[in-house]
Amino acid sequence: MTRDKAISSSELATLWMTYQEKTMIQRILEYFIEDTEDEQAKEILQDTHANVLSYVDRITGILESEGAVIPIGFTEKDVHTGVPKLFDNHFDIMFLRLLTEISMGLHTLHLSMSHRNDLILLYKDLSVFAQGVYDKCVDYLQERDVLPSPPSVTMPQTIEFADGPSYMSGLNLFSEKRALNTVEVSFLYFAIETNVFGMQLMTGFAQVANEPEVKKYFVKGKELSKKIVSDFTGVLIQSDIQPPSTWGANATDSTVAPFSDKLMMYCTSLFCNFGLGSNAVGTAFSLRSDLPLKLVDKAKDILTYGQDGGKLMAKNGWLEQPPSMEDRNKLIK
């Protein structure tokens, strides 16, 4: 396939972000492959790791062919295998499932930002790969009955339209709020599910973080996830909807770090960005007027938390800068 033009700033940005994410996933998988006792889980993790390595090499080749410096990303210094288990069984596949959800969204976005044929093909291939991994994770977790299922619903028999502005009501304390619709439930349920996972992840990270400030940051993240779970669970219960049950996979009492503080901070930053994007979509599609306000309020908290994390990473020299436009600007002056 021919490359008929140089890489654009947007395309360079997507390659840089993908390299950061894939090298992080590579290191996380290296720990879980060593840690898991389940042969089927190990097979999923090993197969995913081999493919991630091939995509890291592919991105490296593209950058080298363009004369671009290769990012540092995450190296063998950021993972410590052979340490005590930090999480119970099944957490590894739950973790991979969530990372793959994030990857699917990023690959779709990056595909839309690419114009060169080789990069379009790269993100198409990554999308297919990520979907395959996601399917394997879901099948694995469902077979073991550890993946909470959204509430069942009676199939609609008629077409209905909103009965006027009252359909949007939700802020008036003296009027009855209508029942949640299935679109609203889906976003609330998803937010609860991901933040239940986030609580356990932040618990584990807080136990093993080396820097005191980083440890405090993860504890703060745990409390934020807990607050989101509590608030959104209350909304579901008000509509007589059963919230997601908690998973069996939890953090152990280990205090030995499998990952560097740098990797754990970047991973948390990635989840914050994912949470902001999910909240934005949920806000746009929630029609009951009280729900967008709740989602926006939580988005503000997530944004503040993420910004605090960025400052902490910069303070400790862990924030690798994306490629700058400064050199180009110098050339055209």
What does this structure look like?
This protein is mostly helical. The chain has two domains: 9-146, Ferritin (Up-down Bundle), CATH 1.20.1260; 174-315, Ferritin, core subunit, four-helix bundle (Ferritin, Up-down Bundle), CATH 1.20.1260.10. 65% of the residues lie in helices and 0% in strands. It is built from nine helices and no strands. Helix 3 (91-112) packs antiparallel against helix 4 (117-143), helix 5 runs antiparallel to helix 7 and helix 6 packs antiparallel against helix 8. The protein is globular. The protein starts with 8 loop residues before the first helix and ends with a helix. Residues 329-333 have low confidence and may be disordered.
Order of helices and strands: HHHHHHHHH
CATH architecture descriptor text of the largest domain: Up-down Bundle
The SS-based structural class is mainly alpha
The major sheet is characterized as: none
CATH class of the largest domain: Mainly Alpha
CATH topology of the largest domain: Ferritin
- The parts where pLDDT drops under 50 for at least 5 residues are 329-333
| Total domain units | 2
* First and last CA, distance: 35 Å
Taken as a percent bin, the fraction of beta residues is under 5%
Helix count? 9
The radius of gyration is 22 Å
Shape category? globular
Mean pLDDT: 90
Q: Indicate the percent of residues in helices.
A: 55-70%
Tally of DSSP β-strands: 0
CATH superfamily membership of the largest domain:
Ferritin, core subunit, four-helix bundle
